[in-house]
Amino acid sequence: MENYDLVVIGGGPAGLAAAIEARKNGVEKILVIERDRELGGILQQCIHNGFGLHVFNEELSGPEYAGRFITELMSMDIEYKLDTMVLDVTDDKVIHAINQQDGYITIQAKAVILSMGCRERTAGAINIPGTRPSGVFTAGTAQRFINMEGYMVGKRVVILGSGDIGLIMARRMTLEGAKVLAVVEVLPYSGGLTRNIVQCLDDFDIPLYLSHTVIDIKGNKRVEGVTIAEVDENRKPIPGTEISYDCDTLLLSVGLIPENELTAQAGAQLDPHTNGPFVNESMETSRDGIFACGNVVHVHDLVDFVTEESRRAGRGAARYIQNKLVSNGQAFKTKPLNGVSYIVPQTVRIENVEKNLDLFLRVRKVYKNVKLVIKGDDEVIKEIKKRNLAPGEMEHLTLPVNSLTGKSFEYLTIEVKEEA
Amino acid sequence: MYDVAIIGAGVAGTFIGRELSKYQLKILIVDRENDVGNETTAANSAIIHAGYDAKANGLKGKFNAPGNAMYDEICEDLDVPFKRIGSLVIGFNDTDHKTIQNLYENGLKNKVPHMRILNHDEVLEMEPHLNNTVYSALYAPTAGIISPWELAIALAENAIENGAELKLETTVTDIKKEEDSYTLITDKGDFTAKYVINCAGVHTDVINNMVAEPYFKIRPKKGNYYVLDKGIDLVNHVIFQCPTDKGKGILIAPTVHGNYLIGPDSEFVEDKDSVATEARCLEYVKETSLLSSTAIPFNKVIRSFAGLRANSDLDDFIIEEAKGAKGFINVAGFESPGLSSIPAVAHYVVELMDKIAGGLTPRADFNPKRRKVVRFNELPEEEKKQLIKENPLYGKVICRCETITEAEIIDSIHRKAGANSVKAVKKRVRPGAGRCQGGFCGPRVVEILARELGVDEKDVPYDSTDAYILTGKTKNEK
Amino acid sequence: MEKHKLICINCPMGCHLEVTKTENGGWLVEGNQCKRGTSYAIRELTEPTRVLTSTVIIKNGFLPRLPVRTETAIPKEKIYKAMDVINKVVVEAPVKVGDVIVENILDTGINVIASRNM
């Protein structure tokens, strides 16, 4: 068995930032394990720009953003293994992994950071009626084929779901010569960022049908067409609103799901609201010394936030290894109330918070001109005016630690308050 | 000139082909699809029924329980996943209880062993996630679950190892009846055989009518199913509902791979090629299944699909020489319990052949075993270590949902009756069958297939040859 | 008075902007929460530009395609023509991030650069 201070599982943006930050905070022996053939994770196929506005104050492409971290990681001589699959993480932090060079390896770590990212929801998960022909792709799979392998996946395309990857692929496929006929979203609002709707759809006159869904797929071999229809408030198709398209491809951008099979194997508890592990202020899961960050915890819209969160996990793991994390003292849980679907972190031990407490949350629906009210039990700590809140855009709140110290409350709650 | 031509490489055609390969016969199996077990065999409940449900006095009653009993040996020989987990037919009231008693009586007639009728408490003790409203159940411990397409693939592989020939993507368009033989006219040329066995599933009537008087009609019944993710604690046995005048009920069945199937409904369809799911039918499946257990987690559905049953208007299996066509045997109307019965049916067909041909000579060199399939994920740590040492490609995981290695995928491509499409790989070793449904491993599987088959990636199909995945290269590169 | 409605795309805020052409030929931008909204709105109405990202064929690389982008935004109406140029490019590995792949594309004064090492 090999020994490491810290093993980071997943070499995407989360794992890279966490490993680098742990090294900067004094952790010696670090290993990053990546299942793909190179570091960088999904960013390597996200060739569009817009990454890094917060972290670098620049607009970079995905590979450029990843590249900066990879270069830094290498300059620090942090070890990594590629094409390596972790089969198991035990609750006492033994990692079982396999690859071609080393065979079957077991590693004892002092701390573990889980940064496996997320996967795409599939056609099966959303249960589209019709045939099961070739030509139905998740947007991310299509993105990999087109951007990395250099293959086109279709000529006439309908996209179901207005998540960011779907919007990005609408533009990408259009520029590569395909005809994108429509983007169809079952909700009355888009799940993607506004800038992507403007730059990826409006720029190319691609229609976006809100409150619509795909009700039939045709074709026994390759997709030959899809039918869409408007849906009512219960998401049931409204007869008479059908539109049929002749197309050879249906792309799906219907949501991302944190990849937490290893997290569950390690015995960390999962939050049903985020589908990720419960974490504390230091990004530690319910398992002692097992940390998590990035899309494995909750799905982010911006990689910049993944980086910030992962740096916190890297610092947390470093302090854990150095026995500097305080496990007693003032503590509270966070709890989403009216209009808020989740809050990360779910627990806070105030003495481990540096200057500010960062809270991430999503709201349940679109709100205009409302307040986010933060309370400690029933006492209002802060109110923040918001002109625009949408489920597709994660909210980041920062509370100065001195606004929380010395107060005794069990729950920190956040709710949306609409104007009377 | 072949001795026997078998039309259809589903579980019936491959089983009979493999059974006949024990004898000194030149055997040809043809199928219009580009893989064996690609139609009815690929989309059904995957259950080996105990046999209490099959009508006594008919062929279904005759073959089901004996067929069931033969499964341990065949699956051992061919290394096919099979688990004898038992089944429960659950009832909720007096009427259901009467049905259960009738099924029990019918089961006795069909010589189904070890059946028991359980009361409310006994049922819930065995299956705590069933609804508390359950009244009683018929327990049949001999019922099993299997991977039907892996069975057909294994049978085809073993038949080929024993000398049979398999011709895929070969559609029989007509059959010429000659003096002492039949010539199959196909899109890939003509093939002459002394005897023909018609195992063409939903098309058996069409094939029969090419040489004999029409005397039955296949009216397929479609069934819609959901597949649930792994890692769910739901039921340990196959759970049936009592058949009522409203229908046969919806089952909950564990699969040999650790998922669950929920389904099927049953509706006649005209189109024999239509396996499209329908929202209305899936909704019916969902609602009806909740009568058995409200604990079914429908948010864990990873796929839905539909399959056809090769139902005939004669209401039983048709296993006989066609009238006026000597040496032409129909294996038709082979709906449920066809899969359960096929081992016994195959033996019976051999007997028929023996009579027709005036005696068959066994082959001395028949090998009943198939080379074992490595299922890396299921092996203990030490064996995993050893395998990677022997072949480092066992250290390269391609499908992470199911932990499938590159070595397993390559093996599935190069075996006899090997995989030549993404779906064919999935049927054999399961990359893409997990919760991501091929989102991550799909491109890698395409790459491996292209490399191993020596073709360009864009010529690797998803399923049948026309089911292309890629439309060409970007930048108009050739 | 000439009025336009726009959504600012500088950041995820996605401010809904209302832009009015004033009598003296200037622009009045409302609804933005930062200065970048004003300049975005005026530019979007007078000379819209976009950063173009794509790939080019690469020989002997780790992958068959190299991701590229325009160094800064190019005029929006030149996007398709720029794609025509980019689609014809073939480069040879190794390439470093930031290497110029197409110099001064369509005389815009803007280079197309590699967006990763390969």
From TrEMBL, chain A:
Keyword match Transport: no
Record GO terms (molecular function): oxidoreductase activity
Alphabetical keyword list: Oxidoreductase
Protein name listed in UniProt: Thioredoxin reductase
The FAD/NAD(P)-binding domain, residue ranges: 4-298
The organism of origin for this protein: Anaerocolumna aminovalerica
Pfam families: Pyr_redox_2 (PF07992)
TrEMBL record, chain B:
Domain called BFD-like [2Fe-2S]-binding: residue spans: 397-451
A Pfam match: DAO
Transmembrane spans: none
Domain FAD dependent oxidoreductase positions: 3-352
Protein name as annotated: Glycerol-3-phosphate dehydrogenase
Lineage: Bacteria, Bacillati, Bacillota, Clostridia, Lachnospirales
TrEMBL record, chain C:
Pfam family, one: DUF1667
Top-rank taxon, per record: Bacteria
Protein name: CxxC motif-containing protein
Organism: Anaerocolumna aminovalerica
